[in-house]
Write a structure and sequence with these properties.
heterodimer, A: 273 residues, SH3 type barrels, Alpha-Beta Plaits, 3 domains, B: 457 residues, alpha/beta, Rossmann fold, 2 domains, nine-stranded mixed beta sheet, six-stranded parallel beta sheet, globular
Chain lengths: 273, 457
């Protein structure tokens, strides 16, 4: 029978703790996702990540203790680094935070005419740190995103109050066509509260193999419905995401020109788009 | 000038493939990629009828022949056939929709088509908020995703997207590459429901250029509020594709369709669709038939790709033909009318040569390339005023213009051309000049000016 040398036993326990940590982090993130189904997908994603990070932090500390290292010094270093980072990067973090909240709900979008403090112009760029305006006299004004959290901002675009644009992320594994079709059906249930001349428009903001940054825009009928509709749209995005399948695995979906050379299986549908 | 990489997107595919093996009648399963040279036209595939494919293929061939295109890819909906088909200088991509989504997609695009032709329900909420519209969006999104992935590999210079079935592709295709949208169906300000304006405007604004088929449509689109670039390009055909069959071939085709030598043939060439106004042609013909006992009306065409079982699977083509056959019976002219169904190009050329003149009685018609085909065969034409091509018809000079709802006028036009012993006298020169306007060579100046302006090659 194999007997583990005593010197290695703590490492075995540490490995078990890390394995359990992985499991608990997955379960925790899943439960948070379930509990936040009606929240913005962006907020839910952030919450899931936060829970996972906290659990991993705790599991890491336990694992380190198990192998006999002192965690006090480690915790002190981490805390000091954190405080230093907060102080040094305060403005950048403010901007990132503001961008995060503008991703949850945009009071303006690219192309809108807005006014904030003495600045007025058309929004031509929204990046992680700044929002860039093009003024009437062709100048660029770069405004820190944090400014939009502190200062009153006026969106002067015609009927801007009607437009509800909700940004959200979709994992790269989701079949966008199926998801959009499902989302449209679910948003159709809200049509009594929406301007029916404007069916939902789903636009792509950016894309990577891992994630697609999208936004859905609807036009509301009554200004006082705006907040409740925002919640409803978030909820329906989350629901549609849960039901959307992955893209078809046939060749064209992933690689249009690399169709496999094997004879196709008899099927009434054949390979989908 | 560097040759460009071009991506074309249509709903109707260039080629339609057989679904059975001719030798044994068993269901055919295509490999994932085939070379067209390995297949046989007629047995394995046939060219799709209709103006869009008839125009786009010569464009690609011309660009390839003149070294203006490096590689061309043509993405279309095609439920049957190999996913990829290779031709010299052109790769066809046949997309499929899940079979459960096809009927809803078909009905939705038919509703859009009907509304654009002034016969649809028109209420935006009935259409754009329906669950079926989700499947139309599904098709457009799938197409846009396919184009995006193809672009990652091919790095296209320009996307050339055709017709209303693909309307949303521009919005859904997130690329900085130039996007052209060719609007093939009529654009009549009085027909398109006013409440569609936001949807249409948003979709059209996503394209760098919108191409329309007549000055009238250009003006209507501008007055509709489209602020982007509009280019009017008349649809076109390659005259080299149209043969002049000899007497033996013509006689063979006439025997095939029961046309007797002494008969005077009046020809219509159109898919079986109520919008083509073929019922009007029958009714007008019935009025003058007793006066001209040797006259025969020959109707060429069947359903479109959308109507075909191998296409979208809508049944309106077959239904409309049945209605027309019943109407001919009711009018007492069934023995004077011939329905040929789909014919091969060589047979069509023979029928053009055999006829005395042609009729395009469309209620509405995006353009009407059959008029140009008639001109190429030196045949006079009776043309609906509602067709886009009508603005090229000089009444009495290269054709006769009629109101498709005025049966008396249409019957009068038929009578006028039947009474003339030589209706082509004084007509041929004007017809050839008019056909030149819609010839491939002429049209390529416009196409290249537009493409060069976009991609700066």
């Amino acid at each position: 029978m194999f007997v583990l040398p005593p010197a290695l036993t703590p490492f075995l326990y540490a490995a078990i703790i890390l394995g359990l940590t992985w499991l608990v982090a997955r379960v925790g993130a899943f439960l948070v996702g379930e509990l936040m189904q009606q929240s913005s997908p962006q907020v839910a994603l952030g919450a899931r990540r936060l829970v996972a990070v906290v659990i991993w932090l705790m599991g890491g500390i336990l694992a380190i203790q198990e192998i006999g290292l002192s965690v006090e010094v480690l915790l002190l270093v981490v805390a000091l680094c954190g405080i230093a980072a907060l102080i040094a990067l305060r403005e950048q973090l403010e901007n990132l935070g503001a961008k995060y909240f503008s991703d949850v709900y945009s009071p303006f979008k690219l192309g809108d005419q807005i006014r904030i403090r003495e600045h007025e112009g058309r929004v031509i760029e929204i990046n992680a740190m700044t929002t860039v305006l093009l003024t009437a006299d062709d100048r660029l004004v770069s405004l820190p995103n944090s400014m939009f959290m502190r200062e009153p901002m006026v969106n002067e675009s015609p009927q801007a109050w009607k437009e509800l644009t909700v940004p959200f992320s979709v994992p790269g594994s989701v079949d966008l066509a199926e998801f959009e079709s499902e989302l449209r059906k679910r948003l159709g249930k809200l049509r009594m509260r929406l301007d029916r001349r404007f069916p939902p428009v789903v636009t792509t903001r950016s894309r990577s193999p891992q994630v697609a940054e999208l936004a859905v825009t609807v036009m509301i009928r009554r200004a006082e419905d705006r907040e409740s509709l925002l919640t409803e749209v978030h909820r329906r995005i989350a629901e549609a995401l849960q039901t959307a399948p992955s893209p078809p695995r046939s060749a064209p979906a992933t690689s249009p020109l690399e169709a496999p050379r094997v004879p196709p299986a008899p099927s009434s549908e054949g390979p989908p788009v | 000038m560097d040759p460009m990489d071009l991506c074309i997107n249509t709903q109707t595919p260039l080629l339609q493939f057989s679904t059975v093996i001719p030798e044994n009648g068993q269901t055919r399963y295509w490999p994932d990629s085939v070379d067209l040279s390995e297949l046989k036209e007629g047995a394995d595939y046939r060219f799709s009828p209709g103006g869009v494919t008839r125009m786009v293929f010569p464009l690609v061939k011309w660009l390839h022949h003149h070294g203006r295109v490096h590689a061309a890819h043509w993405v279309a909906l095609n439920p049957n056939g190999p996913p990829v088909v290779r031709l010299p200088g052109l790769t066809l991509h046949n997309l499929r929709l899940p079979s459960d989504k096809m009927p809803a997609y078909g009905r939705t695009k038919e509703a859009i088509w009907s509304a654009a032709h002034g016969t649809g329900p028109g209420a935006a909420e009935d259409l754009f908020w329906s669950e079926e519209f989700s499947e139309y969006a599904f098709y457009n999104r799938r197409t846009a995703e396919y184009l995006r992935r193809l672009d990652q590999r091919e790095d296209f210079d320009v996307f050339y997207i055709h017709d209303f079935q693909q309307l949303q592709v521009g919005q859904m295709l997130d690329t900085l590459k130039p996007k052209i949208f060719r609007w093939h169906i009529p654009f009549e300000a009085d027909a398109i429901p006013a409440e569609w304006r936001p949807v249409l405007s948003g979709a059209l604004a996503s394209y760098d250029v919108v191409v329309v088929s007549s000055d009238r449509y250009r003006d209507a689109l501008r007055s509709f509020g489209h602020a982007g670039r509009i280019v009017r390009l008349y649809p076109y055909v390659d005259p080299a594709e149209y043969g002049r069959p000899g007497p033996t071939e013509i006689e063979g085709v006439c025997q095939q369709f029961g046309i007797r030598p002494e008969e005077v043939v009046i020809l219509t060439v159109a898919r079986m669709d109520p919008m083509k106004g073929l019922d009007r042609a029958l009714r007008a013909f019935a009025r003058i038939a007793p006066e001209f006992p040797t006259a025969r009306l020959v109707l060429v065409g069947n359903g479109s790709f959308s109507s075909s079982a191998g296409g979208v699977g809508l049944s309106k083509g077959a239904q409309y033909r049945a209605d027309l056959e019943q109407l001919a019976l009711t009018l007492g002219i069934s023995d004077r009318v011939t329905f040929t169904g789909h014919v091969r190009q060589s047979e069509l050329d023979a029928l053009y040569e055999r006829c005395r003149f042609t009729v395009l009685p469309s209620v509405r018609e995006g353009f009407g390339l059959v008029v140009v085909e008639s001109w190429l065969h030196d045949r006079p034409v009776i043309v609906s005023r509602n067709a886009g091509v009508a603005e090229l018809v000089r009444d009495g000079e290269n054709g006769l213009l009629v109101d498709p709802d005025d049966l008396g006028a249409m019957a009068g036009a038929l009578r006028r051309l039947l009474e003339r012993s030589s209706p082509r006298r004084g007509f041929t020169r004007a017809a050839r000049d008019s056909a030149e306007v819609c010839s491939l060579e002429t049209a390529m100046h416009g196409e290249m000016a537009m493409l060069d302006g976009l991609v700066e090659i």
